[in-house]
Write a structure and sequence with these properties.
By secondary structure, the protein is an alpha+beta fold. The protein has 19 helices and 13 strands. The protein has a 4-stranded mixed beta sheet, with helices on both faces. Strand 5 and strand 6 form a beta hairpin. The radius of gyration is 24 Å and the shape is globular. 39% of the residues are buried.
Length: 503
């Protein structure tokens, strides 16, 4: 009895000591934050960021950044409390992504920020690890066999799942969340293309997917880390396993478990005669492909192929709802008589291509990208960047710069991408339009992503009219985005679907 009481008393003392230590550590983090950041910077930009006062005038943080960058003579600003230089200057973007590429890696701070989720995947590494993965991905994504395999899956998913779900909503007169529909479609599609497995998320019953939900939570909370004024805050929370970090840990654990199950299933089915990307990676990597390596590839594929495509499709149909004449012009470009749209047809749809690019100019799926300056440098616009500082280029803001797009930069005008009497699509420099990144890190899945978006867009525009309901349906209303690694609209995109009447 006495021994038990002594043990209980010792346990209580240990718990109190641990709590006291944890509290002191958290308090120290806050004190260090205040000492290092707040007193030494009283500029209006830093105060607006820390107090959140920017939200009084702007719907999104990206809109505030765009305003600051338009006001800057160089298209570059400093946010001192973040230790970050933000730029929308194409010359700076080219310098970072091509001219002096090696001096602007992702960097250790970025790797630490995203490491729990992305691990050693291609989006979170530099140097030899990045080059090795990129070489493998380039070989596979550039393969004619892979592209043909991917397009067949995309076409099947559109015909067998996406269009029937939307037709059912049209016949029932129901309001559906189009953002959720596109996420489910993109998740099913990327899982089939990348892993040869079908999660079956897009069904009339809209089944719950633990994997998709955990992945959403993990990406959202990982992005919350990046918005913190100091990494000490999220690192202290992770150490104490409290708040958002506790929730993030649970989500990543579930992602890990389900990714492991996916890898086991792929191994069980065999990789020799499979065309999915994971099988091809497993076959080409050989002994290098341990479970951790493959897990990181699985997460990277999901991030690249699911969230970006669904984000772009969501904002596309939000814009088409507000611009019915553009949707009508897209229909006019399609072959008549309801003839099927082949892969070759898709490549020749110049106006539709312009519509997709104009949508992503205004609403890029990845609104900003960060690098770290390895050694002190001077950007082409004369901005000095100290060694170890963060540098962010901002595609969302760049799409709103009159110096790049002219006085009508805020207008949705697809014909700005067309040239000549036939209206041929004319691409812009990737350094002025870094939606797919640029230079040595340019997106390897760009053509596949655009093909998928085109296939969905033409199938839906041919069959349906989409009307956005709620606050995002107003012509002048700017959507509000949730913090995340990719852009998603707060509250989703509720729509009514109507069948197109053909005469």
């Amino acid at each position: 009895m006495d021994a038990a009481m002594e043990l209980s008393w010792a346990a209580r003392c240990s718990a109190m000591a641990f709590f006291g230590f944890s509290f002191c550590l958290a308090a120290l983090g806050v004190v260090l934050l205040l000492v290092r950041r707040w007193p030494w910077c009283s500029c209006h930009v830093c105060r607006a960021y820390l107090t959140g006062s920017w939200a009084r005038d702007f719907a999104n943080l990206g809109d505030w950044y765009a305003h600051l960058l338009r006001e800057s003579p160089t298209g570059t600003v400093h946010v001192h409390v973040l230790g970050c230089t933000v730029t929308a200057n194409p010359a700076n973007v080219e310098y970072m992504l091509r001219t002096n590429f090696d001096n602007f890696p992702k960097g250790r701070p970025f790797a630490a920020l995203l490491g729990d989720l992305l691990g050693g995947g291609i989006f979170n590494v530099d140097g030899d690890a990045w080059r090795r993965q990129r070489k493998m991905a380039s070989l596979e994504l550039g393969s004619v066999a892979v592209r043909s395999y991917a397009y067949k899956i995309i076409a099947q998913e559109v015909e067998a799942r996406l269009l029937p779900v939307l037709a059912g909503a049209a016949d029932d007169g129901a309001v559906v969340d189009l953002q959720d529909v596109f996420r489910r479609f993109a998740f099913d599609t990327i899982c089939k293309i990348s892993f040869g497995l079908d999660p079956g998320c897009l069904e009339r019953e809209m089944p719950v997917s633990k994997f998709a939900d955990a992945f959403d939570t993990a990406t959202r909370l990982t992005a919350v880390r990046g918005a913190a004024a100091s990494p000490l805050l999220w690192k202290a929370k992770r150490l104490l396993n409290v708040g958002s970090e506790r929730e993030l840990k649970k989500a990543i654990k579930l992602v890990d478990e389900l990714a492991a199950a996916m890898i086991r299933e792929r191994r069980k089915l065999g990789v020799a005669d499979s065309h999915d990307l994971l099988s091809r990676f497993m076959a080409s990597a050989g002994d290098v492909a341990d479970d951790k390596y493959l897990r990181d590839i699985v997460v990277s594929f999901l991030l690249a192929g699911r969230d970006t495509v669904s984000s772009a499709l969501t904002t596309l149909f939000m814009l088409l709802s507000k611009n019915p004449a553009v949707a009508a012009a897209m229909r006019a470009e399609l072959p008549g008589g309801g003839a099927p749209v082949t892969y070759e047809h898709l490549k020749g749809l110049h106006y539709t291509h312009a519509v997709l690019y104009e949508n992503m100019r205004l609403f890029p799926p990845v609104q900003f990208d960060s690098k770290f300056c390895a050694a002190a440098d001077v950007l082409p616009d004369g901005t000095y960047v100290s060694g170890g500082a963060r540098v962010m280029y901002h595609p969302y803001a760049m799409g709103r710069m009159p110096s790049i797009w002219g006085a009508d930069h805020g207008a949705f005008r697809p014909d700005r991408w067309l040239t000549g009497p036939g209206g041929s699509f004319a691409p812009e420099s990737l350094y002025r339009y870094p939606v797919f990144q640029a230079g040595l890190r340019v997106c390897l899945g760009k053509e596949l992503a655009v093909t998928e978006m085109k296939a969905v867009a033409v199938a839906m525009v041919r069959a349906f009219d989409v009307e956005v309901v709620g606050e995002n349906g107003g012509a002048a209303c700017a959507p509000k985005f949730v913090s995340g690694l990719t852009a998603s609209i707060r509250g989703g995109l509720p729509v009514r679907i109507r069948r197109v009447i053909r005469y």
